[in-house]
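Could you help me review a protein record that somebody else here produced? What it holds is a sequence and that sequence's fold in token form. I need someone to confirm that the token line plausibly describes how this chain folds. Take the sequence as given and treat only the tokens as open to question. This is what I was given:
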Amino acid sequence: MAETADFIRSHFGMVRQDQIETKSVNSLVSFVDKEAEVMLSGRLAELVPEAGFLTEEQMVSNSVKSMLWIIDPLDGTTNFITGIPHFSISIALYDKNEAVLGAVYDVMQKNFYSAIKGHGAFCNRIPIRVNKPKPIAEMLIATGFPYDKTRITPEFDTALHHFVHHSRCVRRLGSAALDLCFTAQGTFDLYFEMHLNAWDIAAGTLIVEEAGGTALSLEGTKDYSGGHLLACSADANDTIAWLLQHFNNTFKH
């Protein structure tokens, strides 16, 4: 990952407007994302030849196999393109639909977050833990918004309004993978977001869980495939219950 991070970092602030593509509403991609994915997938294919791939930019043939690498080569592309130094590389290895390895690299800060199932979570090889539960008034909370603003539900607006007015503060930094890592290390007390993709959260959710936290869908299950996620201390029962009850109406429709 360090080699790929060096490549991404070397192009920070150098990408021209004519080198940027629009994938969908407000979703941008550059040649840096694509080349980074090629670099990562080539190295990972050597490490575990029998594994398939699920990747954001689809620069390698995506395939469903028992073992699967899930890759986001540049999580926070909008930040990268616009000169905000906050973006990451996210890699997870799944075996039979279960995360067994997660790694997230904060490209500009050069912090390496990692977890292996059953062996704890680390930042630069130093163990990390989620915060103990707090009253909402003392929580620092992270969230994010879908590129397509028509997908922002009234329930999400209400939850955001609630936390803005009742928590210590709400942050929107622009990299879901790093939001999860920051939750795992106790920088954030809670992270929630809707309409995420598998490559956004595959590594970060394992890191949170191995740091003593919980990652749940907003339906209250361990199935994140719908892309609606909350992460926090596993003992933050009141906050978890409020969020799940609040979003319940969203998923009845």
Q: What stands out?
A: Helices lie at 2-10, 31-47, 77-82, 154-166, 176-184, 198-210, 237-247. The longest helix spans residues 31-47. The first strand starts at residue 20 and ends at 24. The radius of gyration is 17 Å.
